[in-house]
Amino acid sequence: MTGQTPRLSKVNLFTLFSLWMELFPPIEQQKKSQVKYIVKKTGLVVVKNIKMVGLHCSSADLHAGQIALIKHGSRLKNCDLYFSRKPCSTCLKMIVNAGVNRISYWPADPEISLQNEASNPASTEDAKLDAKAVDRLKSNSRARVCLLLQPLVCDMVQFVEETSYKCDFIQKIAKTLSGCNTDFYTECRQERIKEYESLFLISNEEMHKQILMTMGLENLCENPYFSNLRQNMKDLILFLATVAASVPTFGHFGFYCNGSQQTNEMQHQSLPQEIARHCMIQARLLAYRTGEFLCEWEKNHCDGTGAMYFVGCGYNAFPVGSEYADFPHMDDKQKDREIRKFRYIIHAEQNALTFRCQEIKPEERSMIFVTKCPCDECVPLIKGAGIKQIYAGDVDVGKKKADISYMKFRELEGVRKFTVNMSGRLKWDLPNYIRSLFQPSPQNPQQAGS
């Protein structure tokens, strides 16, 4: 529709989530494999009835597909699985046997690597044998094993670039560092693009074609199919890198409790900063369908996410079954309150709680990641659901914007609130800290401002 902001399709959302789960911060020391071939870490999204019910990544001992079997078992029947790499034969035979509906994968180097990274030549041969076994399992499977890589909608990349630069986290850091002549966001974004392209895109096009042919995708090696495939992959990598740069690792900024809670920061901070940042970027990805992310601690789990497991997610939307023109779409810029959308929108927090795939256990440390401060309509729901911690942007705290009020968030008791701040121990020496960020060190003068 003319005038509407672009939205991320669900297929691309699930694909991006699988790539991002592959990048989940390592919880455990990865063991050196004793087998001849290289096993790539893999991310996996489990979808049922077009809703995410599981987010997983490989651990030191188990592949992502094996973890999904342990976690979901027969509940995988009729699910769609989105892998960040084509699964190996060991995983594929089990998940096919579970009765999944469709298995989609990112078309680069598979889980059993076909790139010549190992010094032992036998590794490449074993990888090729596994690829043949995977192709045979695919041919004889009722489940659809396929690529599902949609082009981004028109202007989507431009839209995510503009909104990422303006997001709460970037603006709060920039405000604190006012007067420092550097664009840390652009530098961070360029670093992420370079990093993710090296992980998810095979730089050598001829090698990429060889891998696709070994995986049984000969039809994609001819142009224009191959060039279109590469462009779609690059666009999604650019999208992911841009969103990741909007929640940057910068100096001693991170997610900390405000006020008096800051003194007991280490006791109350139940998540390492890199994991909190990872989960907030998941919420930022959902925001391009307008959303947030909900997860919870669990004890002794096999997943590469360690003590965390996924409870549910949601994004802003009109009630299910609504047609586009059923409700108003006007925002607070319209003077006539009757034609504003706020009274009809289901908020992201409400959707996450309604369609959660697991119960929130009162004895465990559940947490919710929201790109913006929860409004007065959602704050009582979050507390009533038994959620223990909120990670959020806080620029709207204490404000009233048109029909939306954010007064209750600050007064919320019994729920710890983590927002983007500088580490408490540095707040008292902020001027010296800022100067130190942009002064070259004697050991490495090139690192100033990085």
Runs with pLDDT <50, length 5+?
A: 441-450
Report strand %.
5-15%
Class computed from helices, strands and strand pairing: alpha/beta
Order of helices and strands: HEEHEHEHEHHHHHEHHEEHEHEEEHEHH
Cα radius of gyration in angstroms = 23 Å
Q: How helix-rich are the residues, as a percent range?
A: 25-40%
Distance between the amino and carboxyl termini:
41 Å
Number of strands: 13
Number of helices: 16
Strand order of the largest sheet: 6-13-10-9-7-8
Mean pLDDT: 84
How many strands, what sense, and barrel or not for the largest sheet? 6 strands, mixed
Looking at how many chains there are and whether they match, the oligomeric state comes to single chain
What is the 3D shape?
globular
Write up this protein.
InterPro entries: APOBEC/CMP_deaminase_Zn-bd, CMP_dCMP_dom, Cytidine_deaminase-like, dCMP_deaminase-rel. Its EC number is 3.5.4.5. It is an enzyme of class 3 (hydrolase). With 450 residues, the protein is α/β, with parallel strands linked by helices. The chain has helices at residues 10-22, 64-72, 89-97, 122-139, 156-165, 168-176, 184-200, 205-214, 225-245, 265-268, 273-286, 348-354, 379-384, 408-411, 424-427, 430-437; strands at residues 43-48, 51-57, 80-83, 102-105, 144-146, 253-257, 291-297, 308-315, 366-370, 389-392, 400-401, 404-405, 416-422. The strands form 3 sheets. A 6-stranded mixed sheet has the order 6-13-10-9-7-8. The chain has a 5-stranded mixed sheet with strand order 2-1-3-4-5, with helices on both faces. The protein is globular. The relative contact order is 0.11.
